[in-house]
Each structure stands twice: as structure tokens, then as C-alpha cells.
Amino acid sequence: xxxxAQARGTGIAKRSPEYIDQKISExxxxxxxxxxxxxxxxxxxxxxxxxxxANSGLIVAPAYRKSGVAKSIKEKIFALSREKYPNAKIFxxxxxxxxxxxxxxxxxxxxxxxxxxxxxxFWAGCKSCVNYDILMSKGRKNCMCTAMLYxxxxxxxxxxxxxxxKKNSKIYERFMEVKQSRFLKILKRRQNSGGGPxxxxxxxxxxxx
Length: 209
Hints:
There is one protein chain. By secondary structure, this protein is α+β, with helices and mostly antiparallel strands. It has helices at residues 2-8, 17-25, 69-84, 97-106, 120-124, 132-137, 158-193, 199-207; strands at 29-33, 39-48, 52-60, 89-94, 109-111, 146-150. A 6-stranded mixed beta sheet has the order 1-2-3-4-6-5, sandwiched between helices.
């Protein structure tokens, strides 16, 4: 999972093999395999503050990517989360438009970071992400990721969130591109000049738009 995240240029909360094994033993994971038993993909459930659930560590074997497996895993882990924790708010952070679409199809909505868990253990997991400095410079109120939430007590139907994503997908895509391009341009200019603004000043420039 860590290697996959590094290849994508993002980050992921690194977990030990023992931690993953525990999730599987507790029935809090979805494992995708072929009929022959070949491993295809994986995702697991984490709980925070007894009120929030995150579907974490989604990974698909390279040979099976872009085949719809990720969507199937997300659907299964979402259903498992609803079964085990029917009253919990299910949330996720993503930099990918494809994952945003999958989440929207399930009934997730884009939200501000303030609507997510404030459990320190969850945010500590972001330390292994390449964008962690950006997150902290914004007081954990903004970053390169888009926050999405499914609240069983107050939510739109999947048909509505799916239609909303379809209508606004270009806006979401452009917003992600702007955040990423501004960060990269500022960072590159700073590296080329051998100086430039301080990191905090640089991060303020990125998000002041």
C-alpha cells in the first residue's frame, strides 16, 4: 500500500502487517481474489471516536487496475461498514477524481475538514503523506485532498449525489488541478531561485485563490 501511494505521488497511513492481519481476523476487511485464488485488491475499516468510520488502505493489484475492481471493493467495504456501524458517519480523503466519483455513487458528499473526525490518531496517519506540511500549515482545515462524508442521519440519496458529481465533475477536476499546479509552480520557482518565501508563506500563496 505504501509503495502504491508513493508511485502515485500521494501518501497513505503506513500500517504494520500485524495491524492488517488484525483487521482481517476481526472481519473488518474486504479481500478481492480471482476464482483461482490470486490476490486482486484489498480495503479495511477503521473507527474513530466511536462515531466515524473510514474505509482505508484501498489498493488494487497493477494487473487489475482500471477494470472496475476498485469500485466493487469500495461498494463491498461500504456495505460492510453500514452493517457493522449503522449509525456511524463514513468519510474519506482523496486526491483522485475517480475515487470521488465512486464515493458520490455511494452517497458521499464533499464536505469541509471540520466535519470529519478530529481524533489525533487519525490525523497522525497523514504524517507519511507528501502533503503533510500543507495540511498542518492550514491548521488541518484544507489540503490537496477532498473530504467526502456519508452521514446516515442526514444525507442525500445516491442518485442525487451521483447526479451532482456528474454536473460538477469538471469543477472538481479543475479545483484539484489548480491546487496541485499552484503548489508545484511555487515549489519549483523556490527551488530554482535557491531561496524565496518561507514554507508557511508559500503555503498561504497556494490556497489564497
